[in-house]
Amino acid sequence: MRIGQDIAVRFPGLYLVHHNIPGKRVDWHDWAQHLLFIPLQGEIKILLRSGSLVGGPGKMLYVPPNTSLNFQASEALGERLVCLVDNTRWRAVTSFQCGPAMCPAHQLCKEILFYILLNPKTKSANLWFLLLSKSSPKV
Asked: What's this model's pTM, rounded to 2 decimal places?
């Protein structure tokens, strides 16, 4: 995937973006979906009204719906997966509910996300939701 180019796909209940832009910044905003940030290269910082989350490769950052945030990626490297999961879809696979959190990124989760990102016509996008329900972080 080329530096400076975003790739995005949409499935029922899931919007998946591969950001490959070093130094990417997003001003204060909030989304109605659950957000999962999975840094692949570089570090990301998510500023929240109540504090911040900072993580790099091997971590996954979770932000619940309707939470104001400001996003910043490191200048040198900046590759990450960002998942927006609708609340109805989220509740269908997991009862996981908490505030913003950081946890280890599951390697299989990353592989499945890359697969559905690169194969948007797949009928297997539901695999990711099944994995999510089995590997939800316990915070």
From this structure: 0.82
Look at the alpha carbons of 112, 84, 88, 106 in this order and tell me if their dihedral is positive or negative. positive
Condensed to tens digits (0 to 9), the pLDDT of residues 38-61 reads 999 899 999 999 899 999 999 999
Contacts of 109-115 spanning 24+ positions with Cβ under 8 A:
109/38, 109/60, 109/135, 110/38, 110/40, 110/81, 113/16, 113/38, 113/81, 113/83, 114/18, 114/81
- Domain membership of residue 2 (yes or no) is no
- Say which DSSP state 33 is in: S
Domain count along the chain? 1
User: Is 132's pLDDT higher than 60?
Assistant: no
Is 1 part of any domain? no
What is the domain range of residue 73? 7-134
- Give me the CATH number covering residue 42: 2.60.120.280
How far, in Å, CA of 33 to CA of 56, rounded? 22
**Is residue 138 scored above 50 in pLDDT?**
no
